[in-house]
Design a protein that fits this description.
By secondary structure, this protein is an alpha/beta fold. Helices cover about 25% and strands about 25% of the residues. It contains nine helices and eleven strands. The protein has a seven-stranded antiparallel beta sheet with strand order 7-6-8-9-5-10-11. Helix 1 runs parallel beside helix 2.
Length: about 290
C-alpha cells in the first residue's frame, strides 16, 4: 500500500536549501495547514541565524494582534548582539488590513530592509490571502517612484552643508559590504544621493538624506566615503565612538515617504501623499548638543 504523501509547507524545501547553502533571505511569509512544518522551519532559521545563549538579544517574537509596523521596524533595525544576524517573527498580523499610514510604513521598511535581519510573517489563526492589487504598489517600490527621505547622525562634519554625491558603488556580496570605487567593473553600479545638514554639535552632525538610487548600504557607504560615517554603524563606522555613546544600532531612519501619482483607482487614497514617522529620539539631542 502506497504511503500517503504529506503536504509540504509552500517553499519549505527552498528554505531548507537556503539554510544549507547559507543564502537565507530577508523576508518570508509562512502559511498553510502544516503547522508542524512551520515550527520546524522557524527552528531551522533560529539554529542557523541566532547563536545559542543570545536568543534574548537576537530573536524577537511579535504577536500580530494590535502590533504596529513601527514596532516591527524597531525589532528589525535592532543591531545584532554578539552575532551577525537577527530573527524576527510576526504571528497573525493581517498586512492587507493595515490603514494607509501603516501600509506606507511597511513599504518603507521593506524597501530598505536591514540585511542582517530575517523577518518571518506567520499565519496560523487567520488565513493568508494574496492581494493582487499589491503588485502595482510593489512595482512602484521596485522602480523607485516612491521618494524616501532619511534622518541620520554622522560622526564628523561634511565639508558642504548641501551636496549631491554621485559615485560608483561596488557590492562585495561575499563580505556583505559596499565600497565607493573609481571605475566600472562587474558588481559596480552608479549610486546617487543628496544630503542637507540640519545641525551639528560636539563632532556630530544631523543630516537629511534623499536617495536617488537604491543600492545596498548606499547611505552608510557613501557617508563613510566622505569621512563621516553614520553613528552606531559597526560595519562602516567608528566602533570606539559607538561604544562611548552606548549605541547598539545605527542612527539612521526613514523619516518621510512620498507616494507617486497613481492612476489606478485602488491607490487613489495614496496618490501624491506624504507620510512622516515620528522623529527619532536622537534628533533633538543632536540639535541641543545633549547627545553624549
Amino acid at each position: 500500500m502506497a504511503k500517503e504523501k504529506k503536504e509540504k509547507l509552500p517553499g519549505y524545501e527552498e528554505l531548507h536549501s537556503a539554510v544549507k547553502s547559507n543564502t537565507v533571505g530577508n523576508v518570508y511569509i509562512f502559511f498553510g495547514e502544516e503547522t508542524y512544518l512551520m515550527q520546524q522551519a522557524i527552528r531551522e532559521l533560529q539554529e542557523h541565524l541566532v547563536p545559542t545563549g543570545f536568543e534574548e538579544f537576537n530573536y524577537h517574537r511579535l504577536a500580530g494582534k494590535g502590533l504596529t509596523v513601527q514596532e516591527i521596524t524597531e525589532a528589525a533595525e535592532a543591531m545584532p548582539m554578539m552575532a551577525e544576524h537577527t530573527l524576527v517573527t510576526v504571528t497573525d498580523m493581517d498586512i492587507f488590513k493595515l490603514d494607509e499610514a501603516q501600509r506606507g510604513a511597511l513599504v518603507a521598511l521593506l524597501e530598505d530592509f536591514p540585511e542582517y535581519c530575517t523577518l518571518v510573517f506567520l499565519y496560523r489563526q487567520i488565513p493568508y490571502t494574496r492581494d493582487g492589487r499589491l503588485k502595482k504598489l510593489t512595482a512602484a517600490v521596485a522602480e523607485h517612484r516612491i521618494t524616501k527621505e532619511y534622518l541620520a547622525v554622522l560622526r564628523g562634519t561634511p565639508e558642504q552643508d548641501d551636496a549631491t554625491l554621485t559615485d560608483l558603488l561596488f557590492r562585495d556580496a561575499a563580505h556583505n559590504k559596499s565600497y565607493v570605487v573609481k571605475r566600472m567593473r562587474k558588481g559596480v553600479r552608479q549610486a546617487s544621493l543628496s544630503y542637507t545638514v540640519q545641525g551639528e554639535a560636539d563632532g556630530l552632525t544631523l543630516v537629511r538624506v534623499q536617495l536617488h538610487t537604491g543600492r545596498t548600504h548606499q547611505i552608510r557607504a557613501h557617508m563613510a566615503s566622505i569621512g563621516c560615517p553614520i553613528l552606531g554603524d559597526s560595519k562602516y563606522g567608528n566602533n570606539s565612538a559607538n561604544r562611548e555613546l552606548k549605541l547598539k544600532y545605527q542612527a539612521l531612519c526613514a523619516w518621510e515617504l512620498t507616494m507617486p501619482r497613481f492612476t489606478q483607482p485602488d491607490f487613489a487614497f495614496l496618490s501624491g501623499k506624504t507620510f512622516h514617522a515620528p522623529k527619532p529620539w536622537y534628533y533633538q539631542q543632536v540639535l541641543d548638543g545633549t547627545l553624549k
